[in-house]
Amino acid sequence: MCYNAMHMEELRAESQQISDSFGTIGRSKGASVASSRQQISVTVVSQYIADGLERARDSQTEAANLRERFVLGTSVVAAAAAYAANT
Asked: Which residue from 6, 10, 37, 67 has the highest number of Cβ atoms inside 10 Å of its Cβ?
């Protein structure tokens, strides 16, 4: 199972646990429970988005590091080829 699918499953489980805990409050506070559920849902989504952005940032950093290594390696190969051509 890929990381994304596992993470979504964790979020679903957390959301279900939160939903279950609200079920024990009772029906007399229906409006406030619905409002609280919506607020918690937004919190879960904000956390999911924050985690995704952090993973994207890490991927960008890794890509930049690989690119730097590739450019450096290409420069070394080009310099070696130029040196070999001149000797």
From this structure: 37
Instruction: Give dist(CA 15, CA 77) in Å, integer.
Output: 54
Determine contact, residues 45/8, Cβ cutoff 8 Å. no
Tell me how far the alpha carbon of residue 48 is from its chain's centroid.
7
In angstroms, the CA 7 to CA 15 distance is 12
pTM: 0.44
Q: What is the arithmetic mean of pLDDT over 54-72?
A: 91
What the block records as the tokens of 39 is 């607020």
Instruction: Write the pLDDT tens digit of every residue in 5-31.
Output: 666 677 677 766 665 655 555 555 555
Alpha helix ranges (H) inside the chain = 3-23, 30-86
Amino acid at 14: E
